[in-house]
Amino acid sequence: MMMLARLTLLCCLVAAAFAACGKQAIPPTNLKIVGGVEARPGSWPWQVNLRQKYTFGGGDYQFCGGSLINHQWVVTAAHCIGKNSKPSSYIVVLGAHQRDSADSSQQQFGVTQVITHRDFSSRTLDNDIALMQLDKQVTVNEYISPVCLSGENFPAGTNCVVTGWGDTESTIEPSTLQQVVVPIIDTTTCNQPLWYGGEITDNMFCAGFAEGGKDSCQGDSGGPFVCKNSSGEYELTGVVSWGYGCADSRKPGVYTRVSNYIDWINEQISTGL
Predict the structure, then answer these.
(1) Plot region of 234 (φ>0 → left; ψ -120 to 50 → alpha; else → beta)
(2) pLDDT of residue 4
(3) How far apart (Å, rounded) are the C-alpha atoms in residues 3 and 52?
(4) Does the global pTM surpass 0.85?
C-alpha cells in the first residue's frame, strides 16, 4: 500500500507539473512572416538560454537552447551535452530576450541532474534528447511558463515555429531571440536520395523548404520546435537536432520527434521527484 500511495502521488505531481502549458501572456507577432525575424520579448516563455561555464577564468557562454516543460525540468538535445554530463558545468536562463546581457525579466538556475537518452547515438544523432533538472522551482510569470509536450504527430505541411539565438545567414549575428516559421516535411520526401538519403529515422522529422532559405542553425540546437494544437496551445513537437549546412536546398532542419519520448520523459521526471 505504501508503494501504491507513492506511485499515485508521483503521478499526481507529474500531472500537475504539466498543467497550464503552451499559452503565452505576451502574444507573438509576425507569425505570418515565413522568414526569420526578431521575436517579441516574452512571447516564447518556455525558451531556455542554455549556457556553459568556461573551464578557466570565470564567465559563461550560450551554446544551445532548451524548453521548459514544467516548474523544474528542461528538455534539450543530447548532442548539446555530449560527454559533459557534469551538472555544475551548466547555467539555465529563462525569460531572456538578449543572448549575452541580463534582461530584467530573466531568472537564472543551476542544474542538479543531467539525463541523456540511453540510446542516443552520437554518430547518427538518433534519440537526440536530454533532460535537465533545475536547482530550484521556476517562478512562473508572463515571461516564463512551460510548453506542452506533444503526444501527436502533426501532418506534413503544418506551419510551426522554431526559436533560438543561433546563427543566421546575415553578416551581423543578432543577439536577440529570433523566430522562424517553417512547415513540416513528409519523411518520405526528406529521405529521398538528393535530400537525406535515408538518414531520417522514425525518431526524427524534417521541417523547412525544398529551396532552402529558412532554417534553424548552429546555436539553436536543443531548442523548441512548437506547433499550435486545436485548443490553441503550443506543443513541443520537436527538439532542434541536426542538418547539413543551414538553409541549404533539399537539406532542411532535422528535429527529434518528441511524441516518441513522452513515456521516457515521464519516467525520468517521476524518478527525479
Answers:
(1) beta
(2) 35
(3) 39
(4) yes
221 is annotated as an active-site residue: yes
| Active-site choice (79, 117, 126, 145) | 79
Q: What are phi and psi of 178, to 5 degrees?
A: -110, 155
Contacts of 99 (CB under 8 A, 6+ apart): 49, 62, 165, 175, 176, 177
Q: Note if 128 is an active site residue.
A: yes
Q: Is 97 a catalytic residue?
A: no
- Asked whether residue 140 carries a pLDDT value surpassing 70, the answer given is yes
Catalytic: which of 126, 128, 215, 220? 128
Phi and psi for 80 in degrees, rounded to 5? -65, -35
pLDDT value of residue 35: 63
Q: Rounded to whole angstroms, how far apart are CA atoms 73 and 15? A: 13
| Secondary structure string (H, E, C) spanning the chain | CHHHHHHHHHHHHHHHHCCCCCCCCCCCCCCCCCCCEECCCCCCCCEEEEEEECCCCCCEEEEEEEEECCCCEEEECHHHHCCCCCHHHEEEEECCCECCCCCCCCEEECEEEEEECCCCCCCCCCCCCEEEEECCCCCCECCECCCEECCCCCCCCCEEEEEECCCCCCCCCCCECEEEEEEEECHHHHCCCCCCCCCCCCCEEEECCCCCCCCCCCCCCCCEEEEECCCCCEEEEEEEEECCCCCECCECEEEEEHHHHHHHHHHHHHHHC
C-alpha cell, 105 = 525579466
pLDDT at 100: 87
Catalytic choice (43, 67, 145, 221): 221
